[in-house]
Structures are given as C-alpha cells and as structure tokens.
Amino acid sequence: MALTLLPLPAAEVLLDPVFLAAPHEQALLTELTASVAWRQEPIRLFGKEVLQPRLTAWYGDAGAQYSYSGLTWQPLPWTPPLQQLREQVEAACGTSFNSVLLNLYRNGQDSMGWHADNEPELGPAPVIASVSLGAVRRFRLRPRDPQRTPHEPLTLELASGSLLVMRGPTQQHWLHAVPKTARPAGPRLNLTFRNIINI
Ligand SMILES: O=C(O)CCC(=O)C(=O)O
Ligand SMILES: [Fe+2]
Question: What ipTM goes with this model?
C-alpha cells in the first residue's frame, strides 16, 4: 500500500498501515528491542525531575544534536538495521532524514504526553516519519487551538509495520500523544525519523 493523506484542516498527515510486511516487521522488532542502547531519561516536569514513562534512544549523523524537555542528545551512529530502514522511509517520503528518535513503550502504562515536534532544530515545517512495531497503541491528534482549527480530536490505531508521516503545517497547528491504556498491551517500538537543520 501507499501513503494516504488524511482529510484534516491545517495539517498534512499521511498513513500507510502496511508499510512493512509481516515477517520483516517482526524480525525488526526483535532485533531493535535487543540491540538498541535503550535508556530511561530523566526529564523536568513542572520543575520536578521524573523519569520518562518509556525507554528512548537517539541515532543519527554526527552533529545531528537535538534538545528537548531539558535534554541534549548526541546521536549514536547508524546501525545496519536502522540505516536500512532509514533508506526505505526516505524512499517512501521523498525526503532525507539525518536522525531517528526511538521510543520503547514497555506496556500499556508507558506513554507520551501531548506535544508537537516543534523544536527549532527541526525548522518551521518539519517532515516527521514514524514507523511503529509491535503492540497496537492509540495515537491521538488534536488541534492546538480548536477556535482557529475547528476539528474533533482523532485517534489512529497504529499497527505494527505502519508508517505515519506528519509534514507541512501539522506541528504548528496540531498536538499528538500516545496515552496510557488499561488494555493489556505488550511492547511497542516507535521510530520517528527527523531532519535536524544546520548541522
Ligand atoms: O510513539 C509514537 O507513535 C509517537 C512518538 C512521538 O510523538 C515522538 O517521538 O515525538
Ligand atoms: Fe512527537
């Protein structure tokens, strides 16, 4: 299948629910879960230091430095499976990426709060390409300002092997989140390919 544009105002969100085929997607989940240098990073939340409710890792070209939530990341060098996936995602998006942020949601209690990927390092209209592996989790989107962008929040169930692309004005006008779930959920691995400008 190919990327399909979702009909949303002030956003360009595209989804390919079956970007990676089943045997490949399973093998990649197993390999990355085992080989990635996962860390649980502290972040500052309302002036308090807490651990992020998920494991993370950052890989990329040398110099693709990235800061968010009070952390500065130096990327680890690309590994063969990450480099291969990067090339597949670049071909699908027609864009190049110099880094990837990986998130491992160990179970339904791991999550990501409402945010936009709008750090200055990404430029004003970044292309963010997100590959999901493992357990299906809800990915929620809502307008930042519902007065200016009138639309209901929406929920996408991101399946293993899916590719979600957010580009154009999406990060300016919309927020996204992966909420906790009370449903039993196994591990989910998400990779967001990004391009850091001016490295
Ligand atoms: O896990 C996801 O699907 C979203 C990850 C995300 O929003 C991010 O890494 O900025
Ligand atoms: Fe994000």
Answer: 0.99
The closest ligand to the CA of 170 turns out to be 2
pTM of the model: 0.95
Closest CA to 142 of 153, 133, 150, 131: 153
56 lines ligand 1 (CB under 6 A): no
73, 130, 139, 142, best to mutate for ligand 1 pocket (most atoms within 8 Å of CB) = 130
59 token code pair: 């890989």
**Tens digits of per-residue pLDDT, 53-107?**
999 999 999 989 877 666 677 899 999 999 999 999 999 999 999 999 999 999 9
d(CA 172, CA 68): 16
Could you tell me the two tokens for 188?
Answer: 């989910």
Query: Containing H/E element for 58?
Result: strand 55-60
For the CA of 177, the nearest atom of ligand 1: 7
125, 167 Cβ separation under 8 angstroms = yes
Query: Whole-angstrom Cα distance, residue 171 to residue 166?
Result: 8
∠ at Cα 65 (62, 70), nearest 5°? 155
Distance in Å from the first CA to the final CA of the chain:
34
User: H/E element holding 33?
Assistant: helix 22-35
User: Which one, of 36, 87, 39, 40, lies nearest residue 59 by Cα?
Assistant: 36
